[in-house]
Design a protein that fits this description.
The chain has 320 residues and is an alpha/beta fold. Helix content is 38%, strand content 14%. The protein contains twelve helices and eleven strands. Strands 8-7-4-3-1-2-10 form a seven-stranded mixed beta sheet, sandwiched between helices. A two-stranded antiparallel sheet has the order 5-6. Strand 3, helix 4 and strand 4 form a beta-alpha-beta unit. The chain is globular and about 75 Å long. Bound molecules: pyridoxal-5'-phosphate. Pyridoxal-5'-phosphate binds next to helix 1 and helix 2. One of its GO terms (molecular function) is pyridoxal phosphate binding. Belongs to the DegT/DnrJ/EryC1 family.
Length: 320
């Protein structure tokens, strides 16, 4: 367990660093936390575009972004959807790269009946307050590649040989290298555990709420997300015509007492993203997602009555 998904991604950056510094490939449409830990540990971000349906990294563009300096790929399971992990795995294996999943949104979601979080060599999860299950702040690092277990153990044991020492394999319990302190308290665990145990029921309630929005918007003037297999209903968004319409929509909904936040500003256009990284290929869908998407309220316990109020307000906006 970790204090956040950001902290789990920091461990991924430290593990990657043990293979040497270089470049890491990211989708540009993501949270700063996906990229920041890698840049802080000396990696150069290389951004590529997303795929228009899943809004996840467009795997077909990753090959073009590869260089002799590439060390890894970080894929984001945006909204509980997933990129083409089969192709990503082939690319990473063929080029000796680590595949890391930013699974902040993906708890309870599936791809071909396998849980998201099980595709990368490592996967970082979030239990922050807006996630499907939450303990206000919290995260986890899933280590799927057994070859990374001991490096992760050492790094998460504050850079000590604690586990080797406890196994009787080291004479002294001592500091041996880089590491991090990753507090996750029993208070947080006590809040999270019952939700983890009820993950299927929570995911199914979330998907029902997602489907309720989708029935209202699938044949509407405004475009909603594609109804892709396996999602955990983490995000329901609408795609407005342009930024002007999006801003007018957010203001209108706020006037009705409904918060409809936009999502990520493209990282390759951000001040730091431009200073530290580069974008490969063309930006067909990233800026569009950054300027046109808005998220509708969706949380554990949302009622259909509340959703109907949101739907009515959206309809009023488009009819006015
Ligand atoms: C894609 C993505 N990655 C990482 C994070 C950071 O998660 P945390 O707040 O648990 O560090 C977020 C936050 O929402 C996110 O959207």
């Amino acid at each position: 367990m970790t204090p956040s998904c950001t902290a789990a991604l920091e461990v991924c950056a430290l593990v990657l660093k043990t293979r040497g510094l270089g470049e890491v490939i990211f989708p540009s449409f993501t949270h700063v936390s996906t990229v920041l830990p890698f840049v802080q540990h000396g990696f150069k971000p290389v951004f590529v575009d997303i795929q228009p349906e899943s809004r996840c990294i467009d795997t077909s563009l990753v090959a073009e972004a590869l260089s002799t300096e590439t060390r890894g790929v970080v894929a984001v399971n945006y909204g509980g959807w997933s990129p083409d992990y089969e192709l990503l795995r082939q690319l990473c294996d063929a080029n000796d790269l680590l595949l890391i999943e930013d699974n902040a949104h993906g708890m309870g979601a599936l791809r071909a009946e396998k849980p998201l979080g099980s595709f990368g060599d490592m996967a970082a999860c979030s239990f922050e307050r807006q996630k499907n299950i939450s303990c206000q702040e919290g995260g986890a690092l899933i280590v799927n590649n057994p070859k990374l277990q001991s490096a992760v153990q050492e790094l998460t044991d504050l850079g000590t040989n604690k586990s080797a020492f406890l196994a009787g394999e080291a004479v002294h319990y001592q500091w041996v290298g880089s590491g991090a302190k990753l507090p996750f308290t029993e208070w947080q665990a006590a809040v999270l555990l019952p939700q983890l145990e009820s993950l299927d029921a929570i995911t199914s309630a979330r998907k029902s709420a997602w489907n309720h929005y989708h029935r209202a918007f699938e044949n509407h003037a405004v475009e909603g997300p594609a109804n892709l297999e396996g999602s955990n209903g983490h995000v329901y968004y609408l795609k407005l015509k342009d930024q002007t319409e999006r801003d007018a929509f957010i203001a209108y909904m706020a006037g009705q007492g409904i918060e409809t936040p936009f999502h990520y500003y493209p990282q390759h256009l951000s001040t730091a993203g431009q200073a530290y990284g580069r974008f490969v290929g063309s930006d067909q869908y990233t800026s569009e997602a950054g300027t046109q998407l808005v998220r509708l309220p969706l949380f554990q316990g949302i009622t259909t009555e509340l959703q109907d109020e949101v739907i009515a307000a959206v309809n009023q906006f488009f009819n006015s």
